[in-house]
């Protein structure tokens, strides 16, 4: 399938992308928080619970997997990519190797993983992956992000995207300006604009097909430590303005990260953005915690009672499906 068609399938109206690509370390922290042992069996058990939830294929177009998960088999003997494909869900894979301190600016982070990437992409394609993810992170403070951080992460994102398209997969390009900090929404707008501008310049330099990528940015928000509340109408207006100004019209759509927002906040803000969307861009979700947290807490009560956790997950996925078309309403939040 051509990458442009894969990108559009990922952005199917009313569907979003489940980010289930937590590393073993991150997944261990999540399971520790609900007092469940982080064994390989339990990590797979929770993820398979989500992947086999009722109507999951109606709300989710793709799942970003971790290296461990894409190589596992489900309880019915299918590989995880086979399990997803049967529900018309595209399997994807996280391919970056995490972050490390940036040379010359040790307080900032640089994403690693270009070495050996071509070989890993071939392996993942053969395992069933049809899209990939690479995340760069930028912190806001008085002195950050530096131009060094903006430039170096943009160059790596672009090189990654070019290699992924050569491997006949769609790259999710994820430049995340972190919520951490005491900055206000205008500073977030300013930094996110600078980050996006640099990323798209480097993507053009690497001759990446804009029609064959999915952008995964942060929303424009007040810093988590600012003491300022986020008004959904203002978040939506600022986010839409930022993206209209900085994203080329050839890009088919955007799947927002939740970035530390609560489950409800992430749904409300996505809904508000779609209510005022006057572009051809498709705005949907690519959430991790904001899709999984409630289900994880329910699952932890009895890991053998899959249906209870699946009910919570399906409801949250449905709420975000509505938000992806601007049709979410508060009264729908009651879980029947």
Account of the 3D structure:
The protein has 336 residues and is an alpha/beta fold. The protein has one domain (3-333): TIM Barrel, CATH 3.20.20. The protein is 46% helix and 16% strand. The chain has helices spanning 3-10, 24-33, 40-51, 56-59, 67-70, 80-85, 117-127, 147-166, 185-205, 232-246, 263-276, 289-301, 306-323, and strands at 16-19, 60-65, 90-94, 99-102, 105-111, 131-138, 170-177, 214-215, 253-256, 282-287. The longest helix is centred in the middle third of the chain and has 21 residues, at 185-205. The N and C termini lie far apart (39 Å).
Q: Give the DSSP E fraction (strand runs of 2 or more residues).
A: 15-25%
Give the overall form. Answer: globular
Q: Count the helices. How many?
A: 13
What is the number of E strands? 10
Q: Over all CA atoms, what is the radius of gyration?
A: 19 Å
Q: CATH superfamily, called what?
A: Aldolase class I
The pLDDT mean sits at 96
Residues in helix, %: 40-55%
**What count of structural domains?**
1
CATH class: Alpha Beta
Main sheet: which strands, in order across?
A: 8-7-6-3-2-1-10-9
CATH architecture: Alpha-Beta Barrel
Provide the structure class.
alpha/beta
Distance linking N and C termini: 39 Å
Sketch the major β-sheet. 8 strands, parallel
Q: pLDDT under 50 segments (min length 5)? A: none
Order of helices and strands: HEHHHEHHEEEHEHEHEHEHEHH
Q: Tell me the CATH topology.
A: TIM Barrel
